């Protein structure tokens, strides 16, 4: 089951019957006091636009908290007292891979994601807990939200329930994650899987957690094994080939 959430810079424009609303705690559009007045009995979600401001959600986009590295500071410093799996980062689907790559780059566990893609489809993409899918100019935005939002509806583990299981395989971190010098345990895990799949094109067995030319050649061999060719077998991981590689979750 999913829920509907509204957000706006002006609470008076949100439908009066809304049971879930989101507002800002800082910046020129700070409006949580107005949200509380208009929606005293609704679930209210607080959004921060500065990496130095506490809130349930950090807005990571230009003119708010940008570049994405600010999300790392927010999670590890400003909100250090709250587990990352009870924090949420808001971003556009177009910058989502970049945001995720920043967490991988710094070795910081990822928060929940509320993503924006205005296609009018109320469907939450894999890996997110909410999707902003509709906007009405000068009025409000509309999102579809999971039935239990960690850090908003309660702790990441509901009372009496076991901790949520971690995915067996590492989610695709985005193509931009794979660049020369990138260091991550994800790359080391990928390295091992490529060798296991008979795609070893490495010239060295050192620094297996650092992306380099050996990774490009070995991954290109894997892409070709998967049936890709040309630019689709350029050695830079794509989501389809990555999913098929079954890189263990690290």
What does this structure look like?
The protein has 250 residues and is α/β, with parallel strands linked by helices. It has an 8-stranded mixed beta barrel with strand order 1-2-3-4-5-6-7-8. Helix content is 24%, strand content 18%. It starts with a strand and ends in a 5-residue tail after the last helix. The radius of gyration is 20 Å and the shape is elongated. The protein has 6 helices and 8 strands; from the N terminus they run ββαββαβαβββααα. Helix 2 links the parallel strand 4 and strand 5. The longest helix has 13 residues.
Secondary structure elements and pairings:
Elements: E1 2-7, E2 20-24, H1 32-38, E3 43-48, E4 57-59, H2 69-78, E5 88-92, H3 96-106, E6 112-116, E7 130-136, E8 140-146, H4 185-196, H5 213-225, H6 239-245
Strands of the widest sheet, in order across it, are 1-2-3-4-5-6-7-8
Biggest sheet, open or closed, and with what strands and sense? 8 strands, mixed, barrel
Helix segment tally: 6
- Alpha carbon gap, first and last residue: 30 Å
The coarse overall form would be elongated
What is this structure, in a nutshell?
With 250 residues, the chain is an alpha/beta fold. The protein has six helices and eight strands.
Quickly list its features.
alpha/beta, elongated, 250 residues, 6 helices, eight-stranded mixed beta barrel, 8 strands, single chain
């Amino acid at each position: 089951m999913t829920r509907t959430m509204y957000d706006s810079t002006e609470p008076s424009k949100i439908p009066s019957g809304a049971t879930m609303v989101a507002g800002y705690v800082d910046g020129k559009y700070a409006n949580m006091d107005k949200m509380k007045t208009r929606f005293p009995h609704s679930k209210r979600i607080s959004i921060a636009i500065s990496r130095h401001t506490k809130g349930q959600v950090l807005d990571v986009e230009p003119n708010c908290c940008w570049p994405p590295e600010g999300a790392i500071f927010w999670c590890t410093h400003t909100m250090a007292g709250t587990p990352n799996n009870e924090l949420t980062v808001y971003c556009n689907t177009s910058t989502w891979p970049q945001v995720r790559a920043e967490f991988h780059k710094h070795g910081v566990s990822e928060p929940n994601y509320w993503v924006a893609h205005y296609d009018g489809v109320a469907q939450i993409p894999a890996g997110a807990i909410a999707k902003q899918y509709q906007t009405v100019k000068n009025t409000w935005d509309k999102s579809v939200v999971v039935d239990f939002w960690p850090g908003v509806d309660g702790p990441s583990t509901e009372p009496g329930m076991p901790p949520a299981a971690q995915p067996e395989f590492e989610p695709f971190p985005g193509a931009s994650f794979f660049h020369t010098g990138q260091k991550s345990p994800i790359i080391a895990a990928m390295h091992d899987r490529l060798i296991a799949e008979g795609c070893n094109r490495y010239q060295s067995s050192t620094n297996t957690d650092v992306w380099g030319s050996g990774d490009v050649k070995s991954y290109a061999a894997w892409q070709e094994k998967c049936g890709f060719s040309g630019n689709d077998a350029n050695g830079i991981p794509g989501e389809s080939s990555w999913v098929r590689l079954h890189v263990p979750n690290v």
